């Protein structure tokens, strides 16, 4: 709410020339170098940057929470206490001084709502404890206040919720409880370290609007750390961009998005905005011919199997899904965690065997088969036509094999190529995906995340497949790398005439890359259609909520806080 | 919670059956059967063999019938009449020999277990919190050394040291004067003055490994986000560590009973032999050496039962301590 | 959906890994493993010690100055001799000649104890690579060279003292090393085979088989081992030849010792089974056999080595305890446990405290194996954060 910001009030927090170092081996990593900023009452400052930028370390330094061996080596962190300034750097990490700042004046919420709450204490215990640490009131009063706080963050049935454990709550509820705990002593500053990153996009929208509302009510200053430019556009008054431990640029949110000054900021915004518009693609032919036709597919996992193997209930991971993928087409599947989208992708490759329905597939030789009913051996012959790209480029490459061994593995099992032919082919593939041709002798750990994903793609196309199932292939990558990987996949599609089933939770990636998209929820497809139509004129209420919840990287499109 | 306990008890039954089969197998292993061994022994002593008595014995143990019948006769006797068979070496029912000594074994084991926890818990916590401090190194060095020393060797070294340097022998659990005296405060004190030695010997290695376990558990927890979150609330460091990470690290620690108790009973057996304690150990060893198998089988059965009870207790403690187990 | 945050990255030492990656780009798992293992100094030292111990075990006949069975009642409980380096050359000077001295032996009339007083005048020159009693190296070929011994055969030479029958404790301990350490090694190999097969099936197949095997493992681990070992050992017929006893003890120890290895193997298989790279290999169409051997096993080797290294000391301690109680190996086989039987007699150890020497060997061997195993385990997964 830029209108709410009061730029002429005295800042409540002033950080000057902050430096944090981590001794590693015999050298030193400068995690934060010469960072300065101010934070005023009622203002939201977003610290934004990609991984390794030093944004989280900066946030932790303010509360003296930098984990050893890291330490603050220079600078001041001045807190306006109302009766003078307090330098947090001088307080040190232990002792009464810093403890009275923590929780009381500056509170913090974290990325992982699950692991940030103790698993063996009730929610109420943890909130009451915080209150009693800082205020001399009775336990009953503290408990009453805790219940009121839970009510304030809209946790239903707050009295009962006090006596429950964090693992009995959903992710969003846990983050709400975390927020209640952080606000329990009316802090002047709230530091939020990627508080919505681990949450689904609809939950994220709820938490963001809750935070905004609480800030407005209390006039808190908020320091919000995120990697997501969309979130920045939604909630920031001012933005500070960081890169490799240094501040790149600091500006009002509108100025930053509309008139970025520094090249890095421009590049970062460029890669974000690029994903805002669909990539140009040839029009679909008038007459589509399908490559795979999923009809009424279901996969039910038995739950609570006892020793005797009699299930008490079924988890319906996929519940009657029908979907057609045409030749040369990219079909997106979007959904939140637990929607069954990943399971759907894996079922098509028979990593899981479906419990019902069929998957008709037209093989390269024109024969039609039902994947759901193929035997193991018959399925094996399909593995050269239907390939998969995984989400996590770290776990999908065997760390104990060289890149050459990894990429040549499908060639070795499916073709009669000689060792020499395979070497040539792997070198060619590596070049095709934009890696040095001699990279084959190295191990995956020598490559960065984006490069590893390219290796993964090289493995997938080694056999000239016809259909690739891509399971969140860009989710583990920094935003600046995403469209590069997507463009590579697009180029390969043209070259090989590939079809993609593209699974993602990220609407912007889907919109950029796909022709059609299916929206999944609880194992079912709720809506399916042209990607433009779904993104702009969604029909199903869930799709509408989902699309609306996506934070757009444009502060002019900011959502009005719901009542 | 009650359901959980009942489930656990039900889960113990197959384990108990398995132990009884194991014990019975050990009984059956030596060549020849009990009655013929017994007959041979009597004949050797030059006495006449009463064939009617032998037949009644054969009938009682089901000898000559198939193994399954024999097993059910044996286990049936135990379950219905508490009859573990006869020890032919002592010529007495096993029951008369075993309960007192087994009780002593249980007492010593449980006492050791409690003391092991009492020592290893604070040392392990300190070791983890002050990782790589002098204390941590000393505790680690002690732990490794203690784990590498066979407990019987420690017992002998202790015996040797006390005889050489103090001129006293440290065996037994009671002074001769108290051996058969009724229970009194003085007798308890006498017991304590004697029992610390076997407890020390038995507990050393276990304490060492428990220190390692607690240290590792706590090190895992110390850097979890919830600790940082609690720190960000402004909690004093000492209280923070005790309330949060220690509390969580305690859970896997409680379940160590499952392997500490069997190791203790094993160790007790060896140590009691060296120190000549009136516990189950020396009697079992004697029974095994002379292939007095009903006695030996009863020991294996009972010590297995002791472990199962210990595991049950630790399961219940764990459920009390860890809501994740209690509520799932 | 996991967006990386740099705070956790740094704290997890990821940067550390990047630094290594810079230098070790083309390094395979064993290079990385060694790189990590080297940092554990104590483990490296232990590796050297364990190597030495196995060297002693391998060349026991050559390293032992005497035949372990050779007895001489004159030297009952003879104390260890000290090595002197120089002798009088008879001309007021001294010349370099390593030696030990003989003894005056008196028998105490009351206690019948032998009292040994060193006799400086009786010089017994000693040397390296001396001819001594003949032996059959590894039971294969005849030899009579010993690493160290008196130049003159059959002179008294007791560097670690003598036992009740006047046998050389040093030679006996060296031969005991072979038995005790081989029990550990062979027993572990047996455990390894059982553990790999059962743990592998359990982790790879999952389902009912897994549940059954898990229950069995849980059960075995809950049985107090020593009573059971004793029960099984006691059931062995007393007239079995020593070699048969040796193998039976091996089997008994490994029947119970496999569970830990099975647990490790199962755990790794279970987590590997759902690793993306294993699924990827499956989708490459590789055969089941190749999937296991080529894609899964390499991630297992170092963990198995760690589990095996940590299992050997358990075996050694178990053998020692069993033999000590008289239900394990029996004389004339010499193992550390058999040798320690002599310490059961309180009078004997007050008279001859050097009987503890095999005990020290046990402690050193177990200690260094434990350190070694710890080091291997810590380095087992060089790709973990």
Low-confidence stretches of chain B: none
The gross shape of chain C turns out to be: elongated
CATH class category label of the domain at 108-293 in chain B: Mainly Alpha
Pair with the biggest interface: A-C, 65 and 43 residues
Q: Mean pLDDT of chain C, rounded to whole units?
A: 81
Poorly predicted segments of chain C = 1-21
Q: CATH topology of the domain at 108-293 in chain B, which one?
A: MetI-like fold
**Rg over alpha carbons of chain C:** 27 Å
Q: State the secondary-structure class of chain C.
A: alpha+beta
> Which second-level CATH architecture of the domain at 108-293 in chain B applies?
Orthogonal Bundle
Q: How much of the polypeptide of chain C forms β-strand, as a percent range?
A: 5-15%
Question: Which helices and strands appear, and what pairs or packs with what?
Answer:
The complex is a heterotrimer of chains A (563), B (328) and C (385).
Chain A (H helix, E strand, L loop, with lengths): L12 E12 L2 E13 L4 E5 L6 H8 L8 E10 L4 E3 H4 L4 H6 L4 E4 L13 H12 L4 H14 L5 H4 L9 H13 L5 E5 L7 H18 L2 E6 L2 H7 L2 E6 L2 E7 H6 L4 H12 L15 E14 L9 E14 L3 E5 L6 H8 L7 E7 L5 E3 L5 H7 L3 E4 L13 H12 L4 H14 L16 H13 L5 E5 L7 H18 L2 E6 L2 H7 L2 E6 L2 E7 H6 L4 H9 L14
Parallel strand pairs in A: 3-8, 3-9, 6-7, 7-8, 13-18, 13-19, 16-17, 17-18
Antiparallel strand pairs in A: 1-2, 1-4, 4-5, 9-10, 11-12, 11-14, 14-15, 19-20
Helix pairs in contact in A: 4-5, 4-7, 5-7, 7-8, 8-20, 11-17, 14-15, 14-16, 15-16, 16-17
Chain B lengths: L1 H27 L5 H11 L6 H11 L5 H15 L4 E2 L4 E2 H36 L4 H15 L2 H16 L18 H38 L2 H8 L4 H7 L1 H10 L2 H19 L4 H10 L3 H29 L1 H5 L1
Antiparallel strand pairs in B: 1-2
Helix pairs in contact in B: 1-14, 5-6, 5-8, 5-12, 5-14, 6-8, 7-8, 7-12, 8-11, 8-12, 11-14, 12-13, 12-14, 13-14
Chain C lengths: L5 H6 L2 H10 L5 H9 L3 H18 L1 H4 L20 E5 L5 E14 L6 E24 L3 E10 L18 H37 L1 H16 L2 H10 L7 H32 L2 H8 L4 H9 L4 H24 L11 H5 L5 H6 L5 H23 L6
Helix pairs in contact in C: 3-15, 4-6, 4-15, 6-7, 6-9, 6-12, 7-9, 8-9, 9-12, 10-11, 12-15
């Amino acid at each position: 709410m830029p209108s709410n910001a009061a730029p002429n009030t005295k800042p409540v927090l002033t950080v000057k020339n902050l430096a944090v170092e981590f001794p590693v081996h015999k050298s030193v990593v400068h995690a934060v170098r010469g960072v300065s900023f101010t934070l005023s009452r009622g203002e939201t400052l977003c610290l934004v940057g990609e991984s390794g930028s030093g944004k989280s370390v900066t946030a932790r330094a303010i509360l003296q929470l930098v984990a050893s061996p890291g330490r603050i080596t220079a600078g001041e962190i001045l807190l306006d206490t109302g009766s003078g300034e307090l330098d947090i750097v001088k307080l040190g990490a232990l002792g009464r001084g810093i403890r009275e700042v923590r929780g009381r004046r500056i509170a913090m919420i974290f990325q992982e709502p699950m692991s940030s709450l103790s698993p063996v204490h009730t929610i109420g215990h943890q909130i009451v404890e915080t209150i009693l640490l800082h205020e001399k009131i009775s336990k009953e009063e503290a408990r009453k206040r805790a219940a009121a706080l839970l009510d304030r963050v809209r946790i239903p049935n707050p009295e009962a919720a006090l006596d429950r454990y964090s693992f009995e709550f959903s992710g969003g509820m846990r983050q709400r409880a975390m927020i209640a705990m952080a606000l329990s002593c009316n802090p002047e500053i709230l530091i939020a370290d990627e508080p919505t990153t681990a949450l689904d996009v609809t939950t994220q929208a709820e938490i963001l609007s809750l935070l905004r509302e609480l800030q407005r009510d209390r006039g808190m200053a908020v320091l919000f750390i995120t990697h997501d430019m969309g979130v920045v556009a939604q909630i920031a008054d001012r933005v500070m961009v960081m890169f490799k431990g240094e501040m790149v640029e600091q500006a009002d949110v509108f100025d930053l998005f509309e008139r970025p000054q520094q090249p890095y900021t421009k590049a970062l915004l460029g890669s974000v905005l690029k994903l805002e518009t669909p990539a140009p693609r040839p029009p679909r032919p008038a007459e589509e011919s399908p490559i795979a036709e999923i009809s009424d597919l279901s996969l039910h996992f038995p739950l609570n199997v006892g020793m005797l193997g009699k299930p008490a209930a079924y988890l319906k991971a996929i519940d009657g899904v029908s979907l057609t993928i045409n030749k040369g087409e990219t079909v997106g599947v979007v959904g939140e965690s637990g929607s069954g989208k990943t399971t759907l992708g894996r079922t098509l490759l028979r990593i899981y065997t479906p419990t019902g329905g069929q998957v008709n597939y037209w093989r390269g030789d024109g024969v039609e088969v039902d994947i759901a009913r193929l035997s193991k051996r018959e399925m094996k012959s399909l593995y050269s036509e239907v390939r998969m790209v995984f989400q996590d480029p770290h776990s999908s490459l065997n760390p104990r094999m060289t890149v050459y061994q990894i990429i040549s593995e499908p060639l070795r099992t499916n073709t009669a190529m000689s060792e020499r032919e395979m070497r040539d082919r792997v070198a060619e593939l590596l070049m095709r995906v934009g890696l040095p041709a001699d990279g084959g002798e190295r191990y995956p750990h020598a490559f960065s995340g984006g490069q590893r994903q390219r290796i993964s793609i090289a493995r997938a196309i080694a056999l000239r497949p016809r259909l690739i199932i891509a399971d969140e292939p860009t989710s583990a990558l920094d935003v600046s790398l995403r469209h590069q990987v997507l463009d590579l996949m697009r180029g390969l599609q043209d070259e090989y005439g590939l079809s993609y089933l593209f699974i993602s939770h990220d609407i912007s990636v889907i919109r950029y890359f796909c022709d059609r998209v299916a929206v999944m929820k609880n194992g079912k497809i709720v809506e399916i259609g042209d990607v433009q139509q779904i993104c702009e004129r969604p029909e199903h209420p869930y799709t509408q909520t989902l699309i609306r919840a996506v934070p757009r990287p444009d502060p002019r499109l900011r959502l009005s806080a719901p009542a | 919670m009650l359901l959980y306990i009942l489930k656990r008890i039900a889960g113990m039954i197959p384990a108990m059956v398995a132990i009884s089969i194991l014990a019975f197998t050990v009984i059956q292993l030596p060549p020849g059967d009990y009655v013929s061994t017994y007959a041979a022994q009597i004949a050797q002593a030059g006495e006449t063999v009463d064939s009617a008595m032998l037949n009644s014995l054969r009938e009682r143990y089901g000898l000559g019938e198939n193994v399954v019948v024999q097993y059910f006769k044996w286990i049936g006797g135990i379950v219905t009449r508490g009859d573990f068979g006869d020890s032919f070496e002592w010529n007495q029912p096993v029951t008369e020999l075993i309960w007192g000594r087994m009780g002593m074994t249980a007492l010593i084991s449980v006492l050791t277990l409690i003391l092991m926890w009492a020592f290893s818990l604070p040392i392990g916590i300190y070791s983890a919190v002050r990782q790589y401090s002098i204390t941590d190194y000393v505790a680690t060095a002690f732990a490794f050394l203690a784990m590498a020393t066979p407990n019987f060797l420690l017992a002998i070294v202790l015996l040797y040291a006390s005889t050489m340097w103090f001129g006293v022998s440290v065996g037994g659990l009671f002074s001769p004067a108290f051996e058969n005296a009724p229970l009194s405060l003085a007798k308890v004190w006498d017991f304590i003055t004697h029992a610390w030695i076997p407890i020390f010997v038995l507990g050393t290695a276990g304490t060492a490994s428990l220190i390692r376990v607690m240290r590792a558990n706590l090190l895992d927890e110390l850097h979890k986000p919830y600790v940082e979150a609690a720190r960000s609330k402004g909690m004093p460091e000492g209280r923070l560590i005790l309330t949060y990470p220690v509390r969580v690290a305690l859970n896997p620690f409680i379940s160590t009973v499952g392997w500490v108790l069997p190791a203790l009973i094993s160790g007790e057996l060896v140590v009691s032999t060296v120190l000549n304690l009136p516990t189950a150990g020396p009697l079992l060893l004697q029974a095994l050496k002379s292939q007095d198998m009903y006695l030996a089988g009863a020991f294996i059965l009972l010590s297995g039962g002791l472990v199962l009870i210990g595991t049950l207790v630790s399961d219940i403690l764990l459920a009390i301590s860890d809501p994740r187990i209690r509520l799932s | 959906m996991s967006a990386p945050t740099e705070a956790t990255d740094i704290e997890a030492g990821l940067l550390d890994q990047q630094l290594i990656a810079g230098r070790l780009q083309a390094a395979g798992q064993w290079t990385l493993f060694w790189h990590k293992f080297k940092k554990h100094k104590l483990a490296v030292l232990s590796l050297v010690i364990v190597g030495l111990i196995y060297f002693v075990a391998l060349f026991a006949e050559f390293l032992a100055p005497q035949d372990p069975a050779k007895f001489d009642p004159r030297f009952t409980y003879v104390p260890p001799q000290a090595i002197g380096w120089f002798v009088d050359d008879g001309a007021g000077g001294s010349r370099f000649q390593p030696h030990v001295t003989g003894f005056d032996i008196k028998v105490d009339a009351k206690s019948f104890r032998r009292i040994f007083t060193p006799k400086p005048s009786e010089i017994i020159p000693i040397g390296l690579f001396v001819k001594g009693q003949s032996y059959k190296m590894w039971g294969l070929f005849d030899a009579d060279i010993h690493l160290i011994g008196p130049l003159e055969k059959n002179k008294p030479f007791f560097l670690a003292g003598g036992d009740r029958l006047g046998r050389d404790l040093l030679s006996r301990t060296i031969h005991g090393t072979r038995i005790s350490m081989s029990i550990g090694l062979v027993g572990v190999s047996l455990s390894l085979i059982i553990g790999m097969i059962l743990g592998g099936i359990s982790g790879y197949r999952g389902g009912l088989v897994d549940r059954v095997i898990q229950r069995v493992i849980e059960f075995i681990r809950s049985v107090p081992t020593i009573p059971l070992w004793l029960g099984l050992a006691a059931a062995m017929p007393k007239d079995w030849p020593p070699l048969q006893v040796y193998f039976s003890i091996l089997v008994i120890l490994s029947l119970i010792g496999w569970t830990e290895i099975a647990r490790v193997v199962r755990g790794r298989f279970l987590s590997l089974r759902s690793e993306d790279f294993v699924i990827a290999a499956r989708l490459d169409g590789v055969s089941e056999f190749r999937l296991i051997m080529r894609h899964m096993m390499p991630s297992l080797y170092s963990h198995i080595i760690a589990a095996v290294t940590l299992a050997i000391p358990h075996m050694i301690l178990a053998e020692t305890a069993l033999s000590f109680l008289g239900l394990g190996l029996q004389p004339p086989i010499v193992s550390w446990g058999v040798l320690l039987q002599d310490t059961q007699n309180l009078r004997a150890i007050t008279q001859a405290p050097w009987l503890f020497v095999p005990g020290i060997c046990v402690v050193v061997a177990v200690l260094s194996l434990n350190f070694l195993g710890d080091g291997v385990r810590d380095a087992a997964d060089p790709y973990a954060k």
